[in-house]
């Protein structure tokens, strides 16, 4: 497996070097979307790859994070940056409440519960129009950091600013996830992924660890939702939609749910693909399903680990 | 390195399309997804108009190139495509934003990069407060309310009951109606509501029926709700004039409610729907008849007001480019703002720096349903 330091180095180089190949500043926008998705998918790597649990409602947490940035500044006068953090704490707390009873059970009950949770969030966002302004969406205030940078002489365009901002957020997120991987908790998580019974017999608190992974991944999704809302300066209930959750899971599975680098590649491929294939927009969801199926049949570890193994196999 | 390959492919595509530029117009519309019934006729209309204009020699001697993306009704995608149109395709103007959500996420892109943008969505928030680079063609909910109240006032109605859907359309129109109702000296004595999937509105209508002094009932709503209200209204024999909104101005409403129940229902509707009923001296008659004929001949389906919004946006933009005599976005913007006396499918447009819509109430016609079809009132 690629080591922690190498992974971080590769990601940092990708973030820094990619702009040299950008023919227009539109690509900064694509880049920042890749990082936002990458951040959420990194959270899913912790949940799916480390702990072996599936969530089909992570977009619900993105909805909470995103709407926090819209509603808290409007109603409580909070700074949008603070609002994002409050949203992340809120998402973590809700994940804890949802996960605590469910993760004591064996099997994929979490998938069912999160499926319901995600749909619930998007319904609340769409229907409680007095608070959220309903399906038409709501404006999100400016983060204000770009103007501060301008004062110190760093004049970035909107897309450039968000490219760097979400790029840095993503690398930090990756760093945290990689540290977790090598920590005692991470090892315990991987142990229970391998065999829950074996892990239990060596004294690992399986339920607590799974819950921990779920809460952390919810915080990742929430922050990704906040980043998206802040850079779009507008958010609608679509962000919490079921297809959005599926998109993220597909990214994680495609890239390789076990590795952070895989998360990045999964996010990168599936974020750029619709831009290359604009003519196939109608079939996007069919393509997503196909990608997921083929991955499950031919590359169960995901694209990156499978390719790496292929290369190593040839070396031998 | 997959992502770099993908980016390189993107780059190649981008460069390839940048090479053959005459005047580039961008559009992002919801051709698929939940808003497809709006976006599809819009996109078809644009393609048809561009084809026709280019065949006739283009504008100012230059051909028009249309770059059209499908955002599937997702505001996040709409924002990405708008960025792509501006930064990568380098279009001179953007038409689109099928829904209010997609429009609101395109606005910051258009305003930041100073490219004129004509939206095809309904909400009044799009142009209020006025944004320098943002325009729109569809009439607003508030105008529908005003048209209805104007008609009520003319008939001496001053006390009404209201029953609104709680969906996005119904809730927004209810709010707008409550905002302007005072200007017409009309009082709302009962204010009932129903959910978007409710199958029976008899209790709410009974409340309205039992409220003393009510002279008419207004139903802001969209989809199946208004049909059920219309049926229940007849079953209860309320016996008062029933006003529906422009949201039901389609044949399927009459089919759902039944011709018998819909008899005598009043509603505001666009001239496009009653093209063949308009008097010969109506200024809009030639426009709506020509558009209807062209569209049905090409696509073999009925016209909708949504396609009409795209028609108006395109014509306003082309006239602005012609007057500007250049494809400089700033000059185009100034000329769009100076649009006066443009007769379109949605009405007569007179824009000013304070009004980036430019429609007045004549954009709506009061219709009455008689014998299962529309008739013009007055």
UniProtKB/TrEMBL annotation, chain A:
CDD domains: TM_PBP1_LivM_like
Keyword Electron transport listed: no
Entry's transmembrane regions: 27-49, 82-99, 108-126, 161-181, 213-231, 251-274, 286-308
MF annotations from Gene Ontology: branched-chain amino acid transmembrane transporter activity
Signal peptide, first to last residue: none
Chief place of localization: membrane
Alphabetical UniProt keywords: Cell membrane, Membrane, Transmembrane, Transmembrane helix
Cross-referenced Pfam families: BPD_transp_2 (PF02653)
The protein's name in its UniProt record: Branched-chain amino acid transport system permease protein
Organism expressing this protein natively: Amaricoccus macauensis
Locations listed in the record: Cell membrane
Topological category with respect to the lipid bilayer: Multi-pass membrane protein
Coiled coil: none
Any one annotated GO CC term: plasma membrane
Xref: InterPro entries: ABC_transp_permease, LivM-like
TrEMBL record, chain B:
Pfam families according to UniProt: Peripla_BP_6
Any one biological process term the GO annotation gives: amino acid transport
Record keywords: Amino-acid transport, Signal, Transport
Signal peptide: 1-21
Ranges where the Leucine-binding protein domain occurs: 23-358
Presence of the UniProt keyword Transport in the record: yes
Family assignment from sequence similarity: Belongs to the leucine-binding protein family.
UniProt-recorded name of the protein: Branched-chain amino acid transport system substrate-binding protein
Lineage per the UniProt record: Bacteria, Pseudomonadati, Pseudomonadota, Alphaproteobacteria, Rhodobacterales
